[in-house]
């Protein structure tokens, strides 16, 4: 078989303390998974079934990095998130078995063109244009699961230019890792290389060119992202 042009390079993320790379297949994101964030976005925080949206695999970018301020927006927002890397595929995974499918964990930022997302909500259109743009998923090196202290509790935080903006605990997830991954596997067959961004706590806000974002999840990883000039 011949391709009509060379295939794109394999999207991949760094592995902590290693020269190895984690090949990325798909990026799934969980929406409204912290009650306080649901409230700040004007939504009901009741424990409704989790819902998902996606980013392309090549939206991921290693950190530390500089990400250009994207086009078509005047309201670029940060959303700090615990990130799960899948190492073993499967469908209809039981919550009790989810841990056997996880290769590692990290921390990432779901960059969002909030003005485009608000327009999409108002017009009942998909969120893709607001979420799935170039370099919209900066992610720290992935920590192998054997070195992850917990996926059930631990501080998650984000600061802009040294000022704390988001500060919570992953214990506050409405749908914990075992449950939302099990639910996701009911709708799609998960595969090695899938990345799951698990939702953001309250405190999201806008950034401008020149801002420096730092953040992390205790015991799992830290990141730094600089917002560059407009693309």
What do these coordinates show?
This protein is mainly beta. The protein contains four helices and 18 strands. The strands form five sheets. Strands 4-3-15-8-9-12 form a six-stranded mixed sheet, with helices on one face. A five-stranded mixed sheet has the order 6-18-17-13-14, with no helix packed on it. The chain is globular, with a radius of gyration of 17 Å. The relative contact order is 0.27. The mean pLDDT is 95. It comes from Pseudosulfitobacter koreensis. GO terms for molecular function: hydrolase activity. Pfam families: FAA_hydrolase.
At a glance:
The chain has 231 residues and is mostly beta strands. The chain is built from 4 helices and 18 strands.
């Amino acid at each position: 078989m011949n391709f009509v042009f060379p295939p794109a390079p394999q999207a991949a993320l760094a592995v902590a303390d290693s020269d190895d790379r984690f090949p990325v297949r798909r990026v799934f994101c969980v929406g409204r998974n912290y009650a306080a964030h649901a409230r700040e976005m004007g939504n009901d925080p009741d424990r409704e079934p989790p819902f998902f949206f996606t980013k392309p695999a090549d939206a991921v970018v290693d950190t530390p990095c500089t990400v250009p301020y994207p086009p078509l927006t005047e309201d670029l927002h940060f959303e700090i998130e615990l990130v799960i890397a899948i190492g073993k595929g499967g469908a209809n995974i039981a919550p009790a078995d989810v841990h056997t499918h996880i290769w590692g964990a990290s921390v990432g930022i779901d960059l969002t063109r909030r003005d485009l997302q608000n327009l999409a909500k108002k017009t009942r259109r998909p969120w893709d244009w607001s979420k799935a743009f170039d370099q919209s998923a900066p992610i720290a090196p992935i920590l192998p699961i054997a070195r992850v202290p917990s996926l059930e509790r631990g501080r998650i935080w984000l600061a802009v230019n040294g000022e704390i903006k988001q500060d919570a605990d992953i214990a506050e997830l409405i749908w914990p890792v075992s449950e939302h991954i099990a639910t996701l596997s009911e709708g799609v067959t998960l595969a090695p290389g899938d990345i799951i961004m698990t939702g953001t706590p309250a405190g999201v806000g806008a950034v401008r060119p020149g801002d420096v974002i730092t953040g992390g999840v205790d015991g799992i990883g830290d990141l730094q992202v600089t917002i560059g000039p407009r693309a």
